[in-house]
Specification:
The protein is of the alpha/beta class. The chain folds into two domains: 5-170 and 356-372, Rossmann fold, CATH 3.40.50.2000; 173-354, Rossmann fold (3-Layer(aba) Sandwich), CATH 3.40.50.2000. It is built from 14 helices and 13 strands. It has helices at 18-29, 46-53, 68-80, 91-104, 122-137, 147-155, 173-182, 211-219, 239-248, 285-292, 305-308, 323-334, 337-354, 357-372; strands spanning 5-11, 35-41, 57-60, 85-89, 108-112, 141-144, 164-166, 198-202, 229-233, 255-259, 273-276, 297-300, 315-318. The protein has a seven-stranded parallel β-sheet, with helices on both faces. A six-stranded parallel β-sheet has the order 10-9-8-11-12-13, with helices on both faces. Strand 11 (273-276), helix 10 and strand 12 form a beta-alpha-beta unit. Helix 3 crosses helix 4 (91-104) and helix 8 crosses helix 12. The longest helix is centred in the C-terminal third of the chain and has 18 residues, at 337-354. The chain is globular and about 65 Å long. The chain starts with a strand and ends with a helix.
Length: 374
Amino acid sequence: MPDRIRVLELVVSTQLGGGPVHVRDLIAGLPREEFRITVAGPDGGPLAEVYRGLGADFVDLPLNRLSLLNFWRVYRLIRNRNVHVVHSHGKGAGLYGRVGALLARVPAVHTFHGIHYADYAPVPGWAYLSLERRLASTSETIIHVSSGQAQEAQQLKLAPTDRTQIIVNATDYVRVRDLAEKQPLSREALELPSEGPVLGTVARLDPVKALDVLIEAFALLPSQLSKARLLIVGDGPELGRLKALTRDLKVADRVRFAGFIADAPRSMPAIDLYVSASRREGLPLSLLEAMACGLAVVATRVAGHVDAVEDGVTGLLVPVDDPAALASAMGALLGDSERRRRMGEAGRERVERDFSVTRMVAATAAVYRAAARF
């Protein structure tokens, strides 16, 4: 028997986002005496060096691009590294990883970090779901990061139930709080006024995050909240359109686009209320990080959000694509600091109890052992 289980983690990005950060936490938590980790994905993001620093091998592969050559690259990597288990994260990685694993005759594990297909036209959407169902039949295990996502996948028949596991997404709340408490970004550093309430969100500027709806809701806040500010941390393809929207709605002077921040939890102390308007989610780490920092949350009622936010206890849930409902919930909590405080405390306790990274790593390690037959 080999001395360690060799796992190949495949990612479509090394930027700070759900799947790549999930892999970082796995590498940090898996016992080194039992597992040897190789990560493959596009270089250039900050997490590539983090993976190396945590003891993993990193291989630069453009898994975010459609290329027939990627199938060969992944297959050769599996064979050359004598990999026991392939674990993919994201659409491209899931395609190349599972085909490569099938060709190399090693077990494949795939994690869905959200099921994103709703914006596709009917034919591409049907093709994507059909492909996912076929790939699921070749997979040893399909992992969902929340119960809500698993229910959605079951309705779409994306994987047989006997191949599916729910391993709830998690955050290293100790690390998150250390960043927030020991290296906080002041409002001045974030170019925010010292007075007045601040709503905040951390997200890729992408249509699925519905930041346009959040800006529209912000513009609907009542006049007594005219000193409120909206902080948006993140970057992405929607930046230009979103900035134009703030000008059209005459709130440009009250919306701060802070751009990408490497350790986003550092911005949490500047925020009074965390908001997520997403149209679809798996289980967003940024929302868990906000809760870990004691922030009350307003979020849309979608898979992932409903698994993390207890409506009326740790925050408020509202319908998707409903700026008026979002504005009403934001206004209600901004106007009641004591209620926000209670919800924030309840959210902090919930993260510690239900979203422990130690539990997530242990459950994933068990999947690797079973897949590798160790």
